[in-house]
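FIELD: query
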Amino acid sequence: MSKTNSHGCLYYIFIWPIVMIFKLICYAMVFGFTFIGCVFKCIYRILFKRHKSYCDMTGLEFEEYAAKVLRKKGFKSVKVTQGSGDQGIDILAKMHGETYAIQVKNYQHPVGNKAVQEAYAGCAYYGCDIPVVLTNSTFTPSAKELADKTGVLLWNIEQI
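FIELD: result
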């Protein structure tokens, strides 16, 4: 019986503290890595001003975000148009005495001709000087060709 007690005592004196220290080190590492990961994620978001992924934004949220970016880039009188009946123009803005009619597209795939056509027609409807299609994506070759022929500017939100 004394052998069992001595082994039990040895366990609590030598083995148990080592096990507990090992567990504490493991928990600290997990917490530390999680904490460090959160810090780096926050720094990344602050540096690149991405508080919400474009994929997660609704159309209206992306339009509001685009308007905010345009204001920061020096555009004046930036106005998000009403949802329906806007003739394809989502934002009206001014810079250097010229008015811009901007069609905004939050797409996961390349933007096609229809957006270019809407920007061109909407620009005429609102009496603006410059039609623009603004997206978080890219443009199809035919959209680029049509924009080149009609004078519609094609902008990526990351490159304004």
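FIELD: remark
DSSP finds four helices and five strands in the chain.
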